[in-house]
Amino acid sequence: MEVSSLPISASHRGKLISAGYTSLSSLSSLSPSRLAQDLKISENEAVGILKVASGRSGLDKIENGSHAIVNGAQTAWDMLHEEEYSACISTSCSDLDEILGGGIHCREVTEIGGVPGIGKTQLGIQLAVNAQIPADYGGLGGKAVYIDTEGSFMVERVSQIAEACAQDLLEYDSLMRRDSQACHVDKQSKSFLDNIFYFRICTYTEQIAVINYLEKFILEHKDVKVVIIDSITFHFRQDFEDMALRTRLLSGMALKLMKLAKKFNLAVVLLNQVTTKYLEGSFQLTLALGDSWAHAATNRIILYWNGNERYAYIDKSPSLPSASAPYAVTSRGIMLNSQSPFIVSSAYFVVFFYPVNQPRKHNRHKKGQ
Amino acid sequence: MANKLICEMGLPKSTANVFSARNIITAKDALSLSEFELMELLDVGLEEVMMAVGHISEIACPPYQTALSLLEQRNHNEYLAGHLPTRLKGLDAALCGGIPFGVVTELVGPAGIGKTQFCLKLALLASLPTSHGGLGGRVIYIDVESKFSSRRMIEMGLSSFPEIFNMEGMAQEMAGRILVLQPASLSEFTESLQKIKISLLQHDVKLVIIDSMTALASGEYSQGPPRLGWHISFIKSLAEFCRIPIVVTNQVRSQVRDEASRYVFQGQSRSDTVEDPSKFDYHLVAALGIHWAHAVSIRLVLESRSGQRLIKITKSSISPTVAFSFRINASGILLLNNEGEEMTGPEANTIHCQDHSGIINYDREALQ
Prior knowledge:
Chain A: Belongs to the RecA family. RAD51 subfamily. Chain A: GO terms for molecular function: ATP binding; ATP-dependent DNA damage sensor activity; crossover junction DNA endonuclease activity; four-way junction DNA binding. The structure holds two protein chains of two kinds. Helices cover about 40% and strands about 20% of the residues of chain A. By secondary structure, chain A is α/β, with parallel strands linked by helices. In chain A, helix 10 (about 205-220) packs parallel to helix 12 (about 245-265). Chain A is globular, with a radius of gyration of 26 Å. Helix content of chain B is about 40%, strand content about 20%. Chains A and B meet through helix 1, helix 7, helix 8, helix 9 and strand 5 of A and helix 2, helix 3, helix 4, strand 1 and helix 5 of B.
């Protein structure tokens, strides 16, 4: 391994190389004071460099013990156990939960996209409320962070959904013949609202800042189980000329979110808009932000109209088969679509009738005057 | 807060100096670079960079609010809990009180359906004194298509609020509160928007109406989709930071079946799509495309179907998709019944236009 790959400052790197330390092995049997002397730096700095170097070379070493062949690695068996314990946040629509394998998974980044008015924000709000369902009722009893970049968060709507959810909990109580333990609808829905932390983001810089800050924020406010970004796209779609910068910032953000999801065992939900793309002689709808962004999220769910009904389609997932399921948006939030039988098909077509701006050749409606 | 200065963030002096020496002045400059790029540029260790980036992020990040505090704030501080009532009972109930403050509401519909009538009425309502249920403020009316008619507005006022408008001087006062701008081009419009921004707060403006957005966009560009990116975010932020409702109208255009009116999601095979002969007719779509549609928070569609005019809510995060039939008389738009008809599926998304005379129409049923 080369010294140039070490995460140390440029001047230190330069000094190391000019003093002849080019490979990591040349650093392995060196005392800090010797290094300090050679490089003409303080001993503290030398200790820092050696620490970084030994941390790196640990990757190549083979240690004893069955688990730690490589530092920081996990066996697939351990991961299986962890996945079994990883919780889900229900979407409130049992069909949708079924194709998702229980709901939106914690420890994963899920991207949800769809045409305007299909219910992206609704689903986001529903998840923010559902993440708080107490453990007694089969929920996670967590809190939610809602990052609003578009200004589409309607607090009246949140209170509607929270109230409906609190009522459902009460109903569940009476079904189970349990004493209604302090589960007053009003109080419960208030606490739902109180546990949604809302950030209003107005520029892409703020968006990056809030994602950097989230780690600290979640440490301070424990039990955050879901982070919703509505939408990841908005600021990156307007006035962005430097596409290379955009791609870099977006992929950096995706990595940080992934890390966050793993570290705090929470679900990250990114809402995305759709755009049209000219492909093979026809216009097609696709989620915004382009092809390199498409790799960023672990799961991708597309919401679309299929005739009378709203459908959700799993476009990408490492563990779930592609399938689609209907859902409904009602005044009580996201719900099972009770009108239609449950249909799961692995090759469902997603067909859209949606306008795109094109040269205005047709003005038929005006001729009717 | 993107342009906050790094030197004022309370970083350790040595770090702050390094940042300014490398010409990284604002949070935006710093956060557009990755940690490793910063290390390279600033020539400091990883730990120090991480610490600095963490600190800058924390300060550049706007403070959070809980949804509860947001709700209480709305209910306490704002008149009518942040809504401009339309005085159409059913519609107000469906919208939880009326046109909400702080977001963009769009009216879509074919020509002659009553979009401008609706706008005129809203302008009037916002200028009414608070004692009569209005907002008691000024209205900025951006009239792109030169359709604003003061006479019609006063007629509406006289027939719907005779007690106010028959008072001497009141009509003058009401009409005096409505400022009409008639920009001729997109650039002129942009200019006036920027001027408005400053005057909004100073002059107690309670409503902004843009009639219509489409004429602006399409007047300028004969080819290709109009680039409205900047305007979209500007109008949205204007609504939000001044906490006023912004109402925008949008025209429709027709689309023929074979003219790529059918879009499939990328990756799905096109040949598999089932041909549906019933979709071969013309149908109407909102003129501004999908990018714009993402930006509006509430979309109201005005359409006519079998001789009946309908107003329906097709996009809203608070209301179900309901339609109300209406007619237009001297006092403006009147709902025929206050109980809306709930709509699902394609009904909810299509825009019907049936000529009122019944001679020429594009309605499918009538053609067959």
